[in-house]
Each structure stands twice: as structure tokens, then as C-alpha cells.
Amino acid sequence: xxxxxxxxxxxxxxxELIWIxxxxxxxxxxxxxxxxxxxxxxxxxxxxxPGSVFAFVRWAANDFGTVVSRIDIVRAVLPAEPYxxxxxxxxxxxxxxxxxxxxxxxxxxxxxxxIEATGLDPVxxxxxYWRQTHNRLVAGGTPPAYSIEQHQGxxxxxxxxx
Length: 162
Hints:
By secondary structure, this protein is of the alpha+beta class. Helices cover 26% and strands 40% of the residues. It has helices at residues 102-117, 127-138, 148-161; strands spanning 2-3, 13-20, 24-30, 35-38, 43-48, 53-62, 65-76, 84-86, 89-100. The radius of gyration is 16 Å and the shape is globular.
């Protein structure tokens, strides 16, 4: 990863990260940034290559407690591909999972931890797994853990379609 004040190339997806102690935190939970620009001690911008997957966690609090908890798992947009707009992500991305509310966000973070515990990088997980997880959580269900067998099936399907 490089660090500079220069703008990244136009085909990258950028994410603005913010940290204000006990008030706001926007951070990347997983993903492989290819560029980073440090704006000041509280803000920086990271950039992702087209097609890469990352998890963006946001929360904000006031004097009475947490007011927003959210996690988005996003695929960086490919050139000329349609995309959804998201706050702090430019130009936007393909939303694989979008969850709000601390209980559900915490569940997604636990699923990410479980994927990492198997030795897999969550960026490599099947996009359909994140979509299924989103749908289950929104419907009030329990998403399954991501298994090595599921990952192997995803890799076989990916190889067969190439």
C-alpha cells in the first residue's frame, strides 16, 4: 500500500475513513487497499482496485450512546459497470451486504472472525455468501457459517465459468 497526498487513479473506489474518539468511527474491517491518502490525524482515504471486496464499518455516538451502527460489504465497481451509491464511498459499489443495528452488525463481525479462523481471507469468500447473510439477517434468521466446502464449491464454479 502506498501513502501519499496524490489522488489515486480514476478507476479506483475510494472510502473516506474517520475517527473521532467516542463519537465517530468509519473503518475498513477487511479488504486490500491499493492506495492511502492521509488527510489529517482524524481522516484518511483508502482506495480499492476494481472488483475487490471490502467491509466498511460505521458507527456514531452522542452523549446518550450509539446512534448508528452499520456494516457494508461492497465490491468495488468495475469500469462502466452500474453501481449503488453509498455514503463515504466514491463512486459507489456493488452492495453484497448492508446491515444496520448493533446486534446484527456484531453478528456479521463474528461471521467475519469465523471465516478468518478457518484460514481464509474474507475478501475471497463467495459474494453469494454475503448476499445470503444479508437476506437472512434482514429476515430475522440466522445465517450459516462460511465453510471450507462452500468455498471450494465457489472456486470450482468460478473456474468453470472462466
